[in-house]
Specification:
By secondary structure, the chain is of the alpha/beta class. The chain contains 14 helices and 24 strands. The protein has helices at residues 22-31, 48-59, 86-89, 99-106, 125-133, 168-179, 194-205, 237-249, 265-274, 311-318, 338-344, 374-386, 397-400, 406-412; strands at residues 3-7, 13-17, 39-42, 62-66, 72-76, 83-84, 108-112, 137-140, 145-149, 157-159, 184-188, 209-211, 217-221, 229-232, 253-257, 276-281, 284-289, 297-299, 324-328, 348-352, 355-359, 368-370, 390-394, 416-420. The protein has a four-stranded mixed β-sheet with strand order 22-23-1-24, covered by helices on one side. It has a four-stranded mixed β-sheet with strand order 2-15-17-16. A four-stranded mixed β-sheet has the order 4-5-3-14. Strand 12 and strand 13 (217-221) form a beta hairpin. The longest helix has 13 residues, at 237-249. The radius of gyration is 21 Å and the shape is globular. Bound molecules: uridine-diphosphate-2(N-acetylglucosaminyl) butyric acid. Uridine-diphosphate-2(N-acetylglucosaminyl) butyric acid (EPU) binds at residues 23, 26, 94, 122-127, 162-164, 167-170, 191, 195, 307-309, 331-332, 374-375, 402.
Length: 422
C-alpha cells in the first residue's frame, strides 16, 4: 500500500489548478443513466471514486470513456442490468446515486444498501422516503439489497428534512427520479449545496425542467426524456478549501485557479477570522497568511454554513493558533478519527461528544500516522506540511478517493512531499 512522506517546514508559494468537484461529478455521472444520447462531461476529476462509479456504470450498461482532452464520454448501450451489487457499493457510498436514475428510466433499481463508514452510520431513509413519495414500491430484499420498483413515478410534494437537516445525495436522487416522472414534484427542505445546483443545471441542459435548485424548495416538472449534452462541472470547493489551509498553515501564498469563492462564503469567513488574507480576481484567488493565527469557534452546518468536509483540515490549522478553539461537528457527529492521529503529532485536543477543544501549540512534530477517511487524510497531510521532521501518512487510498494528484500539486508549490510505493 502506498504511503506519503512529508518533511515539514516549507512555505508554499505558487499557483494551483483546482480540479472539478468530485461531489458534483458523481451524481451527474449517475444521471447520465437517464439520457437517450451521449453525454460529454468536462472537468470530471481523475480520482478513485470516479473510477469506482465508472466501473459500476459499465456494469449497468453504460459506455464510459475518458478522452485525451480529459472529457468523459458516457452513453447507455444496454439497459438489461439494474443491479448495483455490494462489491462496488461497499467501496463507495455515493453508488446510491444510481438508484433514482435507474428507477426513473428502467422502472426498477436494485441497490445494495450501503453500510456505515469511518465518519458514522449514514442512513438512507431520506432517499427512500422521497422515492416512495413519488410512488415507488421500496423493499429490503435478500443480501441487504434494496429493491425499488415503479411503473410510473408521479410528482408529489414532499418534505426531505431529517434529524441532521437536509441530505445532499437524497436530494440528488429524488430530484433525478422526479425528472422523468409525470406531473410536478416539489421537494421541501432540499439540500442547497452547489453540487445539487450543478446537477440540476446539467439535467436542465439535457432537457429537464427544474427550478429552485440551490434553495430549500425545488420544483421539478416531469419530462418524457432527456437528451445527450455537453456539460462542464463546477470547481471543487473542498479541494480549494484544503489548499487555502495549506497556504495558511505554512505561512505561504498560493494562487488558486478555477476557484469559485461564491461557493465558499462560510469557509472564507472563518479563514479571515483566523488571520488569512484572501483576494480574488474572477476565478483566481490568492490566499496568504500572517504568522499569527487567531483561535476561532467552528460549527459545521449545511450549505452555506461551514462544510463538514473541511472540518478536519481546519482542525489541523487551529492546532497552531494562538489560543483555544472549539470545533463542533453537527453533520456527522462521529467524524473525528483524525483527532487521535493529530494527537500523535503533538496536537492538544480534547473531544467531548461532537465537540473538540483545540488548544493551540507552538509546533507539531512528524510521526507515522494512519488516514481514516478522505478528509481526515487531507488534515494529516496539512499537519505534516508544518510539522518538524518527517510525517509518514499510511492508508492514502482514502486520499486518492477525492484528491487529484495532491502530492504533485503540493510539491509543485514547494512542499517536500513524496509518494512511496510498496
Ligand atoms: N442522513 C439521514 N438520512 C439519509 C441521508 C442522510 O439521516 O437518508 C443524515 C446523514 O447521516 C448526515 C446528514 O443527513 O448526518 C447529511 O448527510 P448527507 O446525506 O447530506 O451526506 P451524503 O449525501 O451522504 C454528501 C457528500 C459528503 C459530504 C456530505 C455532507 C457526496 C458524494 N458526498 O454525502 O462528502 O460530507 O454530503 O455535505 O456528495 C466527502 O467528500 O468527503 C464526503 C463525505
Amino acid at each position: 500500500m502506498d504511503y506519503l512522506l512529508v518533511n515539514g517546514g516549507k512555505r508554499l508559494r505558487g499557483t494551483v489548478q483546482i480540479s472539478g468537484a468530485k461531489n458534483a461529478a458523481l451524481p451527474i455521472m449517475a444521471a447520465c443513466l437517464m439520457s437517450e444520447g451521449q453525454c460529454v462531461l468536462r472537468g470530471i476529476p481523475s480520482v478513485s471514486d470516479v473510477e469506482h462509479l465508472s466501473l459500476l456504470l459499465r456494469q449497468l450498461g453504460m459506455r464510459v470513456e475518458r478522452q485525451e482532452d480529459g472529457a468523459l464520454h458516457m452513453q447507455v448501450v444496454d439497459e438489461g442490468n439494474s443491479h448495483a451489487e455490494y462489491e462496488l457499493v461497499r467501496k463507495m457510498r455515493a453508488s446510491i446515486c444510481v438508484m433514482g436514475p435507474l428507477l426513473a428510466k428502467r422502472g426498477v433499481a436494485q441497490v445494495s444498501m450501503p453500510g456505515g463508514c469511518a465518519i458514522g452510520d449514514r442512513p438512507i431513509d431520506l432517499h427512500l422516503r422521497g422515492l416512495e413519495a413519488l410512488g415507488a414500491d421500496v423493499q429490503l430484499v435478500d443480501q441487504g439489497d434494496i429493491l425499488c420498483k415503479a411503473k410510473t413515478l408521479r410528482g408529489a410534494e414532499m418534505f426531505l428534512g431529517g434529524h441532521f437537516g437536509s441530505s445532499v445525495t437524497a436530494t440528488c436522487n429524488v430530484m433525478m427520479a422526479a425528472t422523468l416522472g409525470q406531473g410536478t414534484a416539489v421537494i421541501e427542505a432540499a439540500a442547497c449545496e452547489p453540487e445539487v445546483k450543478d446537477l440540476a443545471d446539467f439535467l436542465n441542459v439535457a432537457g429537464a425542467q427544474i427550478t429552485g435548485a440551490g434553495t430549500p424548495r425545488i420544483v421539478i416538472e416531469g419530462v418524457d426524456s432527456l437528451a445527450g449534452c455537453e456539460y462542464q462541472i463546477i470547481p471543487d470547493r473542498i479541494e480549494a478549501g484544503t489548499f487555502m489551509v495549506a497556504a495558511a498553515i505554512t505561512n505561504g501564498e498560493l494562487v488558486l485557479e478555477n476557484c469559485r469563492l461564491e461557493h465558499m462564503i462560510g469557509v472564507t469567513h472563518k479563514l479571515r477570522q483566523i488571520g488569512a488574507n484572501i483576494e480574488s480576481n474572477g476565478d483566481k484567488v490568492t490566499v496568504s497568511s500572517a504568522r499569527h493565527l487567531e483561535p476561532v469557534e467552528i460549527t459545521t452546518q449545511p450549505y452555506p454554513g461551514f462544510p463538514t468536509d473541511l472540518q478536519a483540515q481546519f482542525m489541523a490549522l487551529l492546532c497552531l493558533a494562538d489560543g483555544n478553539s472549539v470545533i463542533t461537528e453537527k453533520i456527522f457527529p462521529d467524524r473525528s478519527m483524525h483527532v487521535g492521529e493529530l494527537g500523535r503529532m503533538g496536537a492538544r485536543l480534547r473531544k467531548e461528544g461532537p465537540t473538540v477543544m483545540v488548544e493551540g501549540v507552538k509546533r507539531l512534530t512528524g510521526a507515522p500516522v494512519m488516514a481514516s477517511d478522505l478528509r481526515a487524510s487531507a488534515a494529516l497531510v496539512l499537519a505534516g506540511l508544518i510539522a518538524k521532521g518527517t510525517t509518514e501518512i499510511n492508508r492514502i487510498y482514502h486520499l486518492d478517493r477525492g484528491y487529484e494528484r495532491i502530492e504533485e500539486k503540493l510539491a509543485a508549490v514547494g512542499a517536500n512531499i513524496k509518494r512511496v510505493e510498496r
